[in-house]
Amino acid sequence: MHSAKQIAxxxxxxxxxPFFGKAQGVGVVLSGGGASGFAHIGVLKALExxxxxxxxxxxxxxxxxxxxxxxxxxxxxxxxxxxxxxxFQLMSNGQxxxxxxxxxxxxxxxxxxxxxxxxxxxxxxxxxxxxxxxxELLDFEMLRLFGTTSASSSYNFDSLFVPFRCVASDIVAKKxxxxxxxxxxxxxxxxxxxxxxxxxxxxxxxxxFDGGLYNNFPADVMYKSFxxxxxxxxxxSYNAAAPKEDDLISQLTNMLVSHTSFEIxxxxxxIIEPKPNISTFDFEDVGEAIDAxxxxxxAMIDSLKSVLDxxxxxxxxxxxxxxxxxxxxxxxxxxVNTVNQKGRDESYVRxxxxxxxxxxxxxxLRFKRRYFRTYATPQIKYLYPxxxxxxxxxxxxxxxxxxxxxxxxxxxxxxxxxxxxTGFVQLNYMRLDRFASTYQIGGYFGKFYNSGKVNVDLHFxxxxxxxASVYGVINRWDYFKSFxxxxxxxxxxxxxxxxxxIGGGIKLPLFNNSKFSVEYRYFETQDRYYQxxxxxxxxxxxxxxxxxxxxxxxxEHNSLNRKQWASSGTLALFKVIYSGxxxxxxxxxxxxxxxxxxxxxxxxxxxxxxxxxPLSTKYxxxxxxxxxxxxxxxxxxxxxxxxxxxNAFQPLPDLQTYFFSDYRSPQYIAGGVNIIFSxxxxxxxxxxxxxxxxxxxxxxxxxxxxxxxxxxxGESQVVSLSxxxxxxxxxxxxxxxxxxxxxxxxxxxFTYGFIIFHERAFR
Length: 763
What we know:
Radius of gyration: 32 Å
Number of helices: 16
Strand order of the largest sheet: 14-15-16-17-18-19-20-21-22-23-24-27-28-31-32-33
Structural class: alpha+beta
Strand content: 35-45%
Helix content: 10-25%
Distance between the termini: 72 Å
Shape: elongated
């Protein structure tokens, strides 16, 4: 249905035609509007299907993206397929394709839920983040979509398939700026920079924000820039309502955003106003917006045809597109220039993408893989890419480098209704020069778990990256205190485990989501325990100390979508540890016999784990999880000491906070299922069930002796039902766990945060 205003405008146009003749040269104006702006795709689609030519195009924000793609020779069908793709959905949510996440560059997992970056010269300057989403994939896609087209068109927007203009906002000069030349990906990216959603970029020293701040419907730009005789406007936006006394957002909006005139600045024009019922950032429903734009245009198509004589067939249009695209040189990079804001060359970044600028070239998936590998370096806050043409038909990649602030404070921990409350703090110092280095000091503190760690990571620039690390760790677990809560009334055995180890190693990538590492560690562990539940504060504990060396080889693939409670992706882990240690065990006051025992041990420990989600949808995921562990560690002096150093079955994070003899054995195999119902984007209801089958177990006899069980005895299960809200600071979870062989098999708890601890020395 036409609005009364639109019908009146059409009548005026029809009455003026005898004086002016039929209009020629059609310009299309595309407004901003966030996700609603994808209605413009439907408008372009309907115009093409009805053979109406588009001779010029201008756009703001979302309209700049759609208009630039059309101006670069993409058909409405191609644009629609792109914005409906999984890649676009990831981009709009600030994610990247999982296969391009770079595992080697990721920090070791810890319980941090928030981070604060700072430098010493700005320690007391408060600042808020300038972006809600990560811009990596967005910036790369802008380069891929527009970089070669822009370079092949001599950076002149009049030389594109359709002459194009877009606008961005210079908030210092408080004016709208029109882009008619330069790097097209920069111009479009600047026009799309919605404040606080995606970070602004700087072009020629000017910081630009979303074009919609000062001009959300660039019909005036069309009128002044191009000789269009007829203007078709597609508008899905509107001016903000007047500010209210008690509404801060409305006040800020009116202070920041200028009112836009949604009118055609000439008599010969028409405005199409689709009405998609979606919000600004509702990019998952762009299909609804496209349909709204298409239907609104079809409803007015007869009126448009009556005032426009010129037609172009789809066959002719596609032929012209093909001829335009033939001018492009493929994306082959033969040189990389990297400059930070202070004008210094960053050789680490350059050498991570291209080993040298003397004859080597890179293109396609290799370039994309190295680009995201480089971006994953924690010392790099932001990269912005552009392309320059070279005489040999290759390109120079220009990377504007913004370093991360040198200091980062990570804070997190665990809050629980059980007595496992633990805080986590870690201070990171990061440098970027010829190589990237990170220096870390921090730890955990609580009744159940205390730990300290010092770590140094070095990342070396290369097209085949290598990392090296040295570290020292102190761990302490107090299982006695961890069992006291208002859900427990049993008195457990006193068990305290202490570890100290130092080590170092190297890590190599196999693929982006896979790495191989080799480490050496020197360790000393001390276990203190009673072998009876009948003890007083005057009793002394038995004590077992192991001191020795370990050599560890780890092969890991990890594409899980979360560091805990994942619902998609794959984990495959294979670890081999060879250890040699001296045992020194001393009896305590409750021991049935006195001993001062020394012995040497040499053993292998082999562990394998696979978790995968063969079915993962928006609302439901199904996962399979398999684990196996084998060790040939010989028996220690007593049953408790032996059990404390055996492999533990811990498929759920909660099991790391218990000491269950039923889930410890020299060799076991286990498997389970993960069933997840996603009620909303970050709210899951999940059930996890596992079957645990030891090959042999460690048994304690009635007379106090101990030894191995018969094969395949001691099987058990674990079942957990959880409701989880994945908050920005960590999972908030209510869970009911079932451990069938315990006196109280059901354990209910609330937990907030990540149950993640530093690695053990060898166990």
